[in-house]
Amino acid sequence: MSVLDSKVPKGPLKTKWTDYKNHIDLVNPANKRNIDVIVVGTGLAGGSAAATLAELGYNVKTFCYQDSPRRAHSIAAQGGINAAKNYQGDGDSTYRLFYDTVKGGDYRSREANVYRLAEVSGNIIDQCVAQGVPFARDYGGLLDNRSFGGVLVSRTFYAKGQTGQQLLLGAYSAMNRQIARGKITSFNRHEMLDVVKVNGKARGIIARNLVTGEIERHSAHAVVIASGGYGNVYFLSTNAMGSNVTASWKIHKKGAFFANPCYTQIHPTCIPRSGDYQSKLTLMSESLRNDGRIWVPKNMEDVMAIREGKKKPTDLSEDERDYYLERRYPAFGNLVPRDVASRAAKERCDAGYGVNATGEAVYLDFASSIQRYGIEQAKIHNIENASKEKIYELGAAIVKAKYGNLFQMYEKIVDQDPYKTPMMIYPAVHYTMGGVWVDYNLMTTIPGCYAIGEANFSDHGANRLGASALMQGLADGYFVLPYTIGDYLSHDIRTGKIPTDTPEFDAAEKEVTDRIEFFINNKGEHSVDYYHKKLGKIMWDKCGMSRNAEGLKTAIDEISALRKDFWKNVNVPGTTTEYNEQLAKAGRVADFLELGELFAKDALVREESAGGHFREEHQTEDGEAKRLKEFQFVSAWEYKGEPKDAVLHKEELVYENIEVKERSYK
Amino acid sequence: MNLTLKIWRQSDANDKGKMVDYKVTEISEHMSFLEMMDVLNEQLINKGEEPVAFDHDCREGICGMCSMFINGEAHGPDRGVTTCQLHMRMFKDGDTITIEPFRAKAFPVIKDLVVDRSSFDRIQQAGGYISVNTSGNTQDANATLISKHAADEAMDAATCIGCGACVASCKNASAMLFVGAKVSQYALLPQGQIEAVDRVKNMVAQMDLEGFGNCTNTGACEVECPKGISLENIARMNREYFSANVKE
Ligand SMILES: Cc1cc2nc3c(=O)[nH]c(=O)nc-3n(C[C@H](O)[C@H](O)[C@H](O)COP(=O)(O)OP(=O)(O)OC[C@H]3O[C@@H](n4cnc5c(N)ncnc54)[C@H](O)[C@@H]3O)c2cc1C
Ligand code: SF4
Ligand code: FES
Question: pTM to 2 decimals?
Fold first, then answer.
C-alpha cells in the first residue's frame, strides 16, 4: 500500500472542484485573526497567495531573498498567460485547455488538478484586469490573444513581452494593499533555511536576514513554499542568479516527498552561449515562434561558409534552407511544443548543421513575417506599388510593436540587428516540471506544509506548454490554496500562537547555525562557483536534452564525488554577521549537489521517454519520444539520508476523461 | 582587454567607505558588465580577499535589482539598458572605470554597491494599487472596453522596473519619474479612476516623507532611465496632484 494519497475528490471531473469547495471546512473571520501563515516566496504563486490569505483575514508573513517582493523571478516571464476564455471564438473551452495541457505534458500529470487549473483560468484574467494589469488590446478595445506552442487555438493573453512583470506587479500591488493594512509583514532580503516541525506538523521556519546575518525564528500554523524552480542546478539557465532549490530541499529533508525531479524543460529559443565566463542564459520568448521561422542550411557547404563568415544567412535562397520543423511537423510547424522543438534543434546541430562557431545555434527568421505584414499594411494604408523598402519598413514596425523589447534585448547581447539578419538561438534549461509532491489540496507529505507554483510538481507532467506556468502560479495562489488551506486550518482555531522558544526551534536553529559556521571556518581551496559550474557541466552533459543509462550512472558517481570534495574544500570568504552573498550561495549550491544526484537517479529509474525526459534507449524509429504504459506514474522520492538511499513511492496516474494516445504533432 | 576599476568599498551602513583600485585582465568584449565583476570577484576570493557586494538577480534587465553608477552615470554609458545588460564592448583596452552605488538620502548603502531601496516599496504601499479583492468575483475581463491607445500608454508607464536610476541621476535625488510612472499607469486606465484622488496624494506624501528631493525639471532621470519612462509621466502626475487638491 502506497503512503501517497492524492486526495482527489470523487465525482465527475467537471463538478469535482465546485462540489469539493462547497463541502470544505471554513474558518470563520474572527478565528482567522488568530491564525498565522508563512509564505516563502513572493513570485506569482507566493505573492497572489499572500495577498489573498491576508485579505481573507489570516496574519501572513512573506519571505523573499530579493530586496522587494516585486523582483521575484516571475518578473522575467515574457510571452504570456493562457486562459480558456474563447474570446477569439476559435473553439477553445475548459476541456480543450485541459486536454492540451495533459497531452502537452505527455500524459504524466494528474487529471483532476489540470482540469481545475483550466476551470479557474478565465477568472485569472478577470482578476488581473480588475487590478489594472495593462494587457494588450485590439483596436476595438477588447483583449488581444496570441498563440503558443502545442495548441491550435489563440488563448494566450499578454502585455507586450513583459507579461510576467505586469502580472507580478498586479500581485505585488495586492500585497501592498495588505501590507498597508498590517495583514502582511514582508521580510525581504531573508532566506528560509529550514522548516520547523512540531508534533509532525509544519509550524514555522528558520530564516537568515541576508543584510545582518541574523538567524531568526518565525512560527505559524501553516507554511507555504512558493520558492520557484530549480533550473539553476545546471548552473546556466534562464533562471535568475539567485533561483534555488533550498526551500524545497529543506522541506524534502524533513519529510516532503520530491516528485519527478528529472522532468526539466529545455526551452528551444534562447540566445546561444558565447564563452566560459557566461553567467546565465537569456530566453527569447516562445511567442516569437508565432512569426519567426526556424531553419538551418540544407547544404553542409553553406554551413561552413556561414561559420567562416564567407556567406550570410540572408544570402541563402529559400530552397537552400531547411525549415526542419515545418518539414517534420506539418500540422504544428514552428509551433510544436518545446520538448519537440528543442530535440529537433539538437538533432540538426548534432548532425553538424549548427550555424555559429560553437556549432550550437539555429536561425529564427522574421523576414517572411516582415514581408507579409508589410504587404498587409500597404493595403490597409492604400499604398499602391509600395517599394521593397516601404514594405520592409511597414512590416518591421508591426514586428517591433509585437516584440520590440525582445529584439532590443537580443541586439544588446549579441550585437546584431534581428530585423535585418535572423536571430541565432539554441535550447537552454528553463523550467522544472518536477518539484515537491502535493495532493489535490496542494499539501505536501508534511501536514500543514504546502507547495505552490513552480515549486510543486502537479500540473505540467513531463513537459509544460508555453504560457501555462503563469496561469498555474496565479491559479494556485489566488484561487486554489486559499480554499484548501482553510480545511486544514479549521482544526487550528484553538491552537493559539505557536511559541518559538521550544526544543524543536532550538534544534532547527542549531542545524542552520552549524552549517553556516562550517562554511565560514572551512577556508578551503575552491570558490562556490567552481563547484556550481562543475555540477552544471555534469548535469548538462549527462542529464540534459537526451539521457542514457550509462551517462546517468556516471553522473551519479561524479556528483557524489563532487559533493564530497565540496564539503572538504569549499572556500567561503567573509563572516557570518554581514551581507555575504557567497555564504548564501554556498548553502544553495550544497543543496543543488544533493538534488542533482537524486535528479540523475530519477532519470535512470524512468526507463521511458516522456516529454522533456528523453532516454536514448526509448525512441521511435523517427526519433520521437517513446512513452511506456508501465511508467504511467509519478515518482515521489522519500528522503533517507544520502540521495542514493532515497526511497521511491509511486502515484499511479489514472486517465478517465482523456484517452491516452500517441502524442503526435505531425 | 585590461582595465583599472575604481570601486566604492564600504563594509556596512556605518562605515565611511572609500574608493579602491583593482585591475582585471583578459576581459572579453562579449562579456556583460556583471560578468566582468564576476571575474574580479572570483579573483578576490581566490586571493582570500572579500568580493565586491552588488545587487543583481535576473541579469536580463527586468527585475530592477542591479544598480551601479558607472563613470558618473546610472547603469553606465549605454542608453536604454540596465547595468546587467551593459556589455564590455562599450569600453576599450586600458580604460579606467569608476563604479559607485546609487546614491541618495533615501537609498542608504548596505554594503559596497548594495543600497536599500525599501523606500520605493513604502511609496507603493501608500497607494500604488487598486482596492479590489482577489477572490475572483470580478466582472468579465472584456466587460470594460479600453482603447488600444490607452492600454499601450498605460503599459509604457507600467514597464518601470523600480531600479532607482532616476533618483541616482537626479541632482536633487527626486523620485518623481518613478512615482509618476506608477500614478500614470492607473490614471490612464478606467479601473484606476475611483481612487485617483487619494492615490496621488498619498503616494506623493510618502515620497516626501522618505526624503526624496524636489523635481526641478532637469530631465536627467529620463536620459538614464533604462526603460525609457518619459517625463510626460511627471507632468501627468502633477496634473493629477493639482486636480486632487482642487477636488479637496
Ligand atoms: C525568462 C523566463 C520567461 C518565462 N516566460 C513565461 C511565460 O511567458 N509564460 C509562462 O507561463 N511562464 C513563463 N516562465 C515560467 C514562469 O515565469 C515561472 O515558472 C513562474 O513565474 C514561477 O513563479 P513562482 O511564483 O513559482 O516562483 P518565482 O517567481 O521564481 O518566485 C520565487 C520566490 O521565492 C523566493 N525564494 C526562493 N528561495 C527562497 C528561500 N530559500 N527563502 C526565501 N525566499 C525564497 C524568491 O525570493 C521569490 O520571491 C518563464 C520563466 C523564465 C525564467
Ligand atoms: S522610472 Fe526608470 S529609472 Fe526610475 S525606477 Fe523606473 S525604470 Fe528605473
Ligand atoms: S539584474 Fe535584473 S535588471 Fe539587472
Answer: 0.97
